[in-house]
Specification:
This protein has 200 residues and is an alpha+beta fold. Helices cover 22% and strands 54% of the residues. A hairpin with a 5-residue loop joins strand 5 and strand 6 (145-160).
Protein backbone atom coordinates (compact mmCIF):
# COMPACT_ATOMS: atom_id res chain seq x y z
CA UNK A 1 0.00 0.00 0.00
CA UNK A 2 2.83 2.39 0.84
CA UNK A 3 4.61 1.64 -2.45
CA UNK A 4 1.41 2.37 -4.40
CA UNK A 5 1.06 5.76 -2.69
CA UNK A 6 4.68 6.66 -3.50
CA UNK A 7 4.26 5.62 -7.17
CA UNK A 8 1.00 7.59 -7.50
CA UNK A 9 2.64 10.66 -5.92
CA UNK A 10 5.61 10.43 -8.30
CA UNK A 11 3.28 10.09 -11.30
CA UNK A 12 1.29 13.10 -10.07
CA UNK A 13 4.46 15.23 -9.72
CA UNK A 14 5.78 14.20 -13.16
CA UNK A 15 2.45 14.79 -14.91
CA UNK A 16 2.08 18.15 -13.15
CA UNK A 17 5.54 19.22 -14.27
CA UNK A 18 4.83 18.25 -17.89
CA UNK A 19 1.49 20.07 -17.73
CA UNK A 20 3.12 23.26 -16.45
CA UNK A 21 5.71 23.16 -19.23
CA UNK A 22 3.11 22.67 -21.93
CA UNK A 23 0.32 24.88 -20.66
CA UNK A 24 0.46 28.38 -22.28
CA UNK A 25 -0.52 30.14 -19.07
CA UNK A 26 2.35 28.83 -16.99
CA UNK A 27 5.39 30.94 -16.09
CA UNK A 28 7.82 28.41 -17.49
CA UNK A 29 6.04 28.37 -20.80
CA UNK A 30 6.06 32.16 -21.05
CA UNK A 31 9.74 32.39 -20.22
CA UNK A 32 10.67 29.81 -22.81
CA UNK A 33 8.44 31.36 -25.43
CA UNK A 34 9.77 34.85 -24.79
CA UNK A 35 13.33 33.65 -25.05
CA UNK A 36 12.63 31.87 -28.33
CA UNK A 37 10.80 34.88 -29.73
CA UNK A 38 13.64 37.24 -28.75
CA UNK A 39 16.25 34.91 -30.18
CA UNK A 40 14.34 34.50 -33.45
CA UNK A 41 13.63 38.22 -33.74
CA UNK A 42 17.26 39.11 -33.01
CA UNK A 43 18.61 36.65 -35.56
CA UNK A 44 16.15 37.80 -38.23
CA UNK A 45 17.03 41.45 -37.61
CA UNK A 46 20.73 40.68 -37.79
CA UNK A 47 20.53 38.63 -40.96
CA UNK A 48 18.08 40.87 -42.79
CA UNK A 49 19.42 44.25 -41.62
CA UNK A 50 23.08 43.81 -42.59
CA UNK A 51 24.55 43.60 -46.05
CA UNK A 52 28.26 43.28 -46.69
CA UNK A 53 27.81 44.83 -50.16
CA UNK A 54 25.26 47.56 -50.96
CA UNK A 55 24.22 49.12 -54.26
CA UNK A 56 23.26 52.80 -53.98
CA UNK A 57 22.16 55.41 -56.50
CA UNK A 58 22.26 59.20 -56.39
CA UNK A 59 20.80 62.14 -58.28
CA UNK A 60 21.58 65.82 -57.88
CA UNK A 61 23.42 68.76 -59.34
CA UNK A 62 27.05 69.76 -59.72
CA UNK A 63 29.13 72.67 -60.96
CA UNK A 64 32.81 73.28 -61.49
CA UNK A 65 35.62 72.40 -63.85
CA UNK A 66 34.72 68.70 -63.76
CA UNK A 67 31.22 69.03 -65.24
CA UNK A 68 30.68 72.76 -65.91
CA UNK A 69 27.05 72.48 -64.80
CA UNK A 70 25.58 69.05 -64.22
CA UNK A 71 21.81 69.24 -64.09
CA UNK A 72 21.08 66.47 -63.47
CA UNK A 73 24.05 64.47 -62.26
CA UNK A 74 23.25 60.76 -61.99
CA UNK A 75 25.35 57.97 -60.56
CA UNK A 76 25.60 54.69 -58.74
CA UNK A 77 28.03 53.25 -56.24
CA UNK A 78 28.84 49.81 -54.91
CA UNK A 79 30.08 49.86 -51.33
CA UNK A 80 31.76 47.34 -49.05
CA UNK A 81 30.61 47.80 -45.44
CA UNK A 82 33.26 47.56 -42.72
CA UNK A 83 31.05 46.93 -39.66
CA UNK A 84 28.30 44.38 -39.18
CA UNK A 85 25.69 46.97 -38.24
CA UNK A 86 22.06 46.85 -39.41
CA UNK A 87 21.17 49.51 -41.96
CA UNK A 88 18.34 52.00 -41.52
CA UNK A 89 15.97 52.58 -44.44
CA UNK A 90 16.05 56.38 -44.33
CA UNK A 91 19.85 56.39 -43.94
CA UNK A 92 21.11 54.07 -46.68
CA UNK A 93 24.67 55.45 -46.61
CA UNK A 94 25.19 54.82 -42.87
CA UNK A 95 28.41 53.57 -41.29
CA UNK A 96 31.95 53.19 -42.58
CA UNK A 97 32.73 51.65 -45.94
CA UNK A 98 34.83 51.55 -49.10
CA UNK A 99 32.99 52.41 -52.32
CA UNK A 100 33.46 52.57 -56.08
CA UNK A 101 31.08 54.03 -58.62
CA UNK A 102 30.37 55.77 -61.89
CA UNK A 103 28.34 58.83 -62.84
CA UNK A 104 27.25 61.00 -65.74
CA UNK A 105 25.96 64.54 -66.01
CA UNK A 106 24.59 66.82 -68.66
CA UNK A 107 23.43 70.35 -69.19
CA UNK A 108 21.78 71.41 -72.42
CA UNK A 109 21.00 75.06 -73.18
CA UNK A 110 21.60 75.86 -76.85
CA UNK A 111 24.95 74.09 -76.58
CA UNK A 112 25.54 71.08 -74.32
CA UNK A 113 28.02 69.86 -71.73
CA UNK A 114 28.26 66.12 -71.12
CA UNK A 115 30.47 64.42 -68.54
CA UNK A 116 31.17 60.82 -67.49
CA UNK A 117 33.32 59.72 -64.59
CA UNK A 118 34.48 56.97 -62.26
CA UNK A 119 35.22 57.30 -58.54
CA UNK A 120 36.56 55.41 -55.54
CA UNK A 121 36.65 56.44 -51.91
CA UNK A 122 36.22 55.77 -48.22
CA UNK A 123 33.48 56.76 -45.81
CA UNK A 124 34.19 57.19 -42.09
CA UNK A 125 30.99 58.04 -40.23
CA UNK A 126 29.46 61.04 -42.03
CA UNK A 127 32.74 62.02 -43.78
CA UNK A 128 33.69 60.82 -47.27
CA UNK A 129 37.02 61.13 -49.06
CA UNK A 130 37.15 60.10 -52.70
CA UNK A 131 38.98 60.53 -55.98
CA UNK A 132 37.46 60.62 -59.44
CA UNK A 133 38.48 60.87 -63.08
CA UNK A 134 36.04 62.46 -65.49
CA UNK A 135 35.77 63.17 -69.20
CA UNK A 136 33.95 66.36 -70.21
CA UNK A 137 32.79 67.12 -73.74
CA UNK A 138 31.42 70.44 -74.93
CA UNK A 139 29.01 70.31 -77.85
CA UNK A 140 27.94 73.15 -80.15
CA UNK A 141 24.31 73.85 -81.15
CA UNK A 142 25.10 72.02 -84.40
CA UNK A 143 25.99 68.89 -82.32
CA UNK A 144 29.69 69.16 -83.07
CA UNK A 145 32.26 68.40 -80.35
CA UNK A 146 34.22 71.63 -79.89
CA UNK A 147 36.32 70.74 -76.84
CA UNK A 148 37.19 67.81 -74.58
CA UNK A 149 39.05 67.52 -71.31
CA UNK A 150 39.98 64.84 -68.77
CA UNK A 151 40.32 65.87 -65.13
CA UNK A 152 41.31 64.40 -61.78
CA UNK A 153 39.02 65.48 -58.94
CA UNK A 154 39.72 64.69 -55.27
CA UNK A 155 36.82 65.57 -52.98
CA UNK A 156 35.85 65.61 -49.34
CA UNK A 157 32.19 65.11 -48.52
CA UNK A 158 29.59 65.17 -45.78
CA UNK A 159 26.59 62.82 -45.58
CA UNK A 160 23.56 64.13 -43.68
CA UNK A 161 20.65 61.69 -43.89
CA UNK A 162 20.03 61.10 -47.61
CA UNK A 163 21.95 64.27 -48.66
CA UNK A 164 25.55 64.04 -49.84
CA UNK A 165 27.55 67.26 -50.24
CA UNK A 166 31.04 67.12 -51.82
CA UNK A 167 33.66 69.75 -52.55
CA UNK A 168 37.23 69.74 -53.88
CA UNK A 169 39.80 70.97 -56.40
CA UNK A 170 40.14 69.94 -60.03
CA UNK A 171 43.22 69.22 -62.14
CA UNK A 172 43.26 69.02 -65.95
CA UNK A 173 45.36 66.02 -66.99
CA UNK A 174 44.49 65.89 -70.69
CA UNK A 175 42.79 68.03 -73.32
CA UNK A 176 41.51 71.60 -73.35
CA UNK A 177 40.91 73.72 -70.30
CA UNK A 178 37.27 74.42 -71.16
CA UNK A 179 36.55 76.50 -68.08
CA UNK A 180 39.41 78.96 -67.85
CA UNK A 181 38.01 81.71 -65.65
CA UNK A 182 34.91 80.38 -63.89
CA UNK A 183 34.30 78.34 -60.71
CA UNK A 184 37.55 79.34 -59.02
CA UNK A 185 38.53 79.93 -55.41
CA UNK A 186 41.75 81.87 -54.82
CA UNK A 187 42.39 81.48 -58.55
CA UNK A 188 42.18 77.69 -58.25
CA UNK A 189 39.47 75.64 -60.05
CA UNK A 190 37.11 73.63 -57.86
CA UNK A 191 34.06 71.35 -58.02
CA UNK A 192 30.99 71.13 -55.81
CA UNK A 193 27.99 68.82 -55.89
CA UNK A 194 24.90 68.05 -53.88
CA UNK A 195 23.16 64.71 -54.36
CA UNK A 196 20.29 62.74 -52.90
CA UNK A 197 21.38 59.15 -52.28
CA UNK A 198 19.20 56.06 -51.87
CA UNK A 199 19.22 52.27 -52.10
CA UNK A 200 18.79 50.52 -55.44
Amino acid sequence: MGKRIIIIALLFIISGTVYCQAYPGSKNFRKGSTFNRKKTKRSQHYNNGFKRIDLLGHIGLSFGQETLIGLPKLGGICRLNFKRAPSIENRPFKGSSFYVGADLSMFVLFAGAFSTGIQAGFKFGPITIDNSFSRLSLMSPESDIVARQTSYNPKIGLVIGPAWLKFGPSYIIKGDNILRDGFRMNNFPFNAELCYIGSL
